[in-house]
Amino acid sequence: MTDAKKPMAEANRISSMLNAVLGAERFPVKVDDLALEYSRQCFADSPIDKVQGEDLDGFDGLLKANKTRSKWLILYNSATHSEGRKRFTIAHEFGHYILHRHQQDLFECGDGDIETGDNNERDIEAESDLFASTLLMPLDDFRRQVDGQQISFDLLGHCADRYGVSLAAAALRWIEVAPKRAVLVASRDDHMLWAKSNMAALKSGAYFATRRNTIELSRDALAHSYSAVDMVDNRTGRAQSWFSREPSGMPITEMTRAAGQYDYTLTLLLMPDAEWQRPQHDDEETEEDTFDRFVRNGQYPVR
Ligand SMILES: [Zn+2]
Fold first, then answer.
1. For residue range 174-223, what is the model confidence (pLDDT) as tens digits?
2. 119 CA from centroid of ligand 1 (Å)
3. How far apart are CA 32 and CA 37, in angstroms?
4. pTM
5. Which domains does the chain have, with CATH numbers?
6. Parallel, antiparallel, or unpaired: how do β-strands 181-188 and 191-197 relate?
7. Angle at CA 162, nearest 5°, toward 123 and 39?
8. What is the 114 CA–ligand 1 centroid distance (Å)?
9. Partner residues linked to 109 by β-bridges
10. How far apart are the CA of 210 and the centre of ligand 1, in A?
């Protein structure tokens, strides 16, 4: 299991320094300048020498040392149109530099790696994602943006703008601090691309094992094409239509928003606390796997 403390501690250390130098209104983080400057000052014998866009076939980003390991290069895919995704990718590669550069000389990162890599690779990917989200969206500032406010995709859009990240990245950050059970689902063509539950939801068994199974959206789902005629993006219904083990009286609030340049749909599911904790279930995916993945955290499949 990954120790989640180190990526967060390293990112928070850098955030404290930025707060001291730039003050609280310093977002979005200029992560390319930061990576250059920070590595030059702290690791002068092997700094990050360059951060640049390039046509990376099949990768989102890359971190590479020169032969003598005296300098490092970060590349991000210049074909990516989303500034948020670029920023997250650079922060992710900076994370590899801070956390893992003594383990490897080359890191090639893309969505595919997260799905197909072995456990070790997945762990360092998750650590770098956690570093990136912590660096780009520090929790204290994030809480100031959302505390006491009704959650909506408009509010999450405000956060995405403030931090210069994708709507999905902001929403994933929000479910971590959500005061109730929350699940974020990305879907396309009525099938889930990925889904992530916060700890409260996970503990109650409200999660989707999208990594191992192809899961079709319920016909009741707002994001299902069958529902598209309804023209609403927010409603409260029965939790059972999403999670069959929920009691019949359990409500669920469902919000949807097109994301990723309308390439896919995000659905945010909110439920009150469960009346029980960790029920038995018979899903193919073991609970340990899921917990492990949650604790590794910050596994943002969309950047
Ligand atoms: Zn990576």
1. 999 998 999 999 999 999 999 999 999 999 999 999 888 899 998 888 88
2. 13
3. 9
4. 0.85
5. 5-136 (1.10.10.2910), 156-296 (3.30.450)
6. antiparallel
7. 50
8. 8
9. 61
10. 21
